[in-house]
Write a structure and sequence with these properties.
Blueprint: H1 2-20, E1 41-42, E2 48-49, H2 60-67, E3 72-77, E4 84-94, E5 97-105, H3 109-117, E6 121-124, E7 130-133, H4 139-143, E8 147-154, H5 160-167, E9 172-175, E10 180-185, E11 190-195, E12 201-204, H6 211-226
Antiparallel strand pairs: 1-2, 3-4, 3-7, 4-5, 5-8, 6-7, 8-12, 9-10, 10-11, 11-12
Amino acid sequence: MKFALSLIALVLAALVIPFLIPGVAKQEGVDPNSNLPWQIQLDGQGGSTVFGLRPGVSTLGEVRQKLGSELDVAIIAEPNEAGALEAYYAQVSLGFVLARAIITLEATEQAVIALRERALKAKHMESTTRKITLHPDDLLAVDAMPIRAISVIPTVNLDEATVVQRFGQPGERLAVSDKRVHLLYPDKGLDVIVDADGKELLQYVAPRNFAWLREPLTAAAVEKQAGR
C-alpha cells in the first residue's frame, strides 16, 4: 500500500511540476521562461499581450510566426449558426508548458458564410457540432484576419491553488457546479476554468473585451435561476 501511494505521488508530481517549475519539460528551440500562460503584459489602454500576441490586433499570420505553422483552420458550427472561424494546435510549446490551443478569429457572420459557401467538406465533431474545412484559396486571406481570443488547454491538470499561485487572486470566482469553477481576471482579460473531472481551460481576450467572456456566464446563470 505504501508503495502504491508513493507511486501515485510520483505520477502526480510528474504531471504538475512542469507547470510549476521553470526549466522542466524544456523543448528544443523554445525558451522555457518566455511566452508562459501567466506572463500577460497590459498596455494600460485595455489591450494585452500574451504568448507574444495581442488579442484583437495580431493576425493569424502572426500566430503562425510566433507559435508555429502546424495548425488546422476551420469553421466550427452548431446547428442553425454560421459558426466561428478557428485555428487549432494539437500541441504547442508555451515556454515550458505543453498545451493544446484554439485561436478564434475576428470574422463577421457574412465573412464566415462566404467561407462556408466555398468550403470543401463538413465533418461532424460531436452529435451536433460540425467542422467545416476551408477551401485552400481562402487560407491566405484568413491569415490576414485579427485574432479575437486565445484558448489554451494545458496537458497537465491544474487545481485552483496552482492557478491562484501563478495568476494571483481572481477578481471573481464563479462556481457552476461542485467540480467546475470559473476564476475570472477582468484586468487581465482572462477566464480560467478549473474542472475536477476534466481538463482546465484558459481563455484570453483583450481586457477591454472581457464582457465577451463574462456575459455568457451571466446569461447562463439567469437561465439556470429561471429554470428553478
